[in-house]
Amino acid sequence: MTVEEFWQQFKTTHPAVTTNDYDAYAFVEADTLAHLVKIGRKTATTSALDLYDENDARPQVGEYSIILDSQGQPVCVTQTKVVETVPFDQVSAEHAYHEGEGDRTLAYWRDVHRRVFSSFYQQCHREFNEQIPCLCEVFERVD
Q1: What is the tens place of the pLDDT at every residue in 47-70?
Q2: How many other CB atoms are there within 10 angstroms of residue 70's CB atom?
């Protein structure tokens, strides 16, 4: 099923949703993390704010997203509930827990995100540091 077909099917089963605006994306570890969203364990994500291009859309409260697997196939729909900008070194243990990965601890979150963000920064010829602004997003799986 295409992303657009998946969206139209979602709208059919959720008639209160009248918008045609949605984002579709895959996580870095697409299959694993999409599965965690689908089973309700992963209800948050974090991105590095200053790696967004000027024209890139940033997550917004109320928006819908279609989570994709590694093959670009839709897995489920989420709705963003909270978006806040927090320095990397101040991301909370609660947020790390809601990301649903590993043992759900802040230490695990920092280790994984430090490695992933460092790689992304290196690709952009920039240097990662622990004060980078992070977009912390909380979402709810709605289908």
Answers
A1: 999 999 989 989 999 999 999 999
A2: 12
Two tokens at 73? 């196939």
Tokens of 121: 């920064």
The SS3 of residue 74 is strand
CA distance 107 to 119: 18
Other Cβ atoms less than 10 A from the Cβ of 109: the count is: 23
Tokens at 44, concatenated: 């948050």
Alpha-carbon distances of 90 from 20, 44, 106, 107, 110, rounded to whole Å: 35, 16, 10, 12, 10
**What does DSSP say about strands 64-68 and 22-25: parallel, antiparallel, or unpaired?**
parallel
Give the three-class secondary structure for 138: strand
Predicted TM-score (pTM) above 0.85: yes
Question: What is the C-alpha separation between 76 and 104, in angstroms, rounded?
Answer: 22
Say if CB 20 and CB 64 are below 8 A apart.
no
Residue 116 phi/psi, 5° resolution?
-65, -50
For residue 118, what are the CA distances in angstroms to 51, 56, 81, 127, 137? Answer: 11, 20, 27, 7, 20
Domains of the chain: 3-141 (3.10.400.10)
